[in-house]
Specification:
Layout: E1 3-5, E2 16-23, E3 36-37, E4 41-50, E5 53-67, E6 74-88, E7 98-99, E8 104-106, H1 108-118, H2 157-163
Parallel strand pairs: 6-7
Antiparallel strand pairs: 1-8, 2-4, 3-5, 4-5, 5-6
Length: 169
């Protein structure tokens, strides 16, 4: 998917290689956070041979569809982030470095981690989103429903006295 051939810089310390890769990504590896990729994932950058460690500096861009945390409507979200990573082909050489074998560095795992970590904790379709009715599931942005939402689970009834919601202030 995101394989970068580094054979021309593998033995040449201080040399760099530029790359520009783009691929359609399988959304199944990103569930449940992402519903759909709306554009191919693009990664552009350079890999530099720093005395056996290979420094990756790249820019990642993608557009995804996420679900609103209140009403579940799809929300478009642009991802644009920088990736800085060190790779090595000597296992155990550097605990902080990712390892690779052969003449190819596979970027799929770092791309996946970077995308997942860049997603917001919560996304809403609008600041005024009213969400869904907890009883019938109707989208309250389309208007109110006729459900009685004053029901309190009997397990929590004793907590009501702590808040004194029935007292006049």
């Amino acid at each position: 998917m995101f394989d970068i051939d580094i054979s021309e810089i593998l033995t040449r310390k201080g040399s760099s290689i530029s790359f520009n890769v783009s691929d359609n990504v399988d959304v199944d590896n990103y569930k449940p956070e992402i519903n759909k990729f709306l554009s191919p994932v693009k990664v552009e950058g350079t890999i530099t041979n720093n005395e056996g460690n290979f420094k990756l500096t790249a820019k990642l861009d993608a557009k995804v569809s996420l679900s609103c945390h209140r009403c579940l409507k799809p929300v478009e979200y642009d991802i644009s982030l920088d990736i800085d990573e060190v790779y090595t082909n000597n296992a155990g050489n550097d605990e902080e470095a990712e390892t690779f074998v052969g003449n190819t560095i596979e970027l799929s795992s770092i791309v996946r981690k970077s995308i997942i970590f860049s997603l917001p904790m919560k996304v809403v379709c609008s600041e005024g989103c009213k969400g869904l009715c907890p009883v019938c599931g109707k989208d309250l942005n389309d208007g109110p429903c006729s459900c009685d939402t004053s029901y309190i689970n009997p397990k929590f009834e004793s907590l009501r006295s702590l808040f004194k919601v029935d007292e006049e202030v």
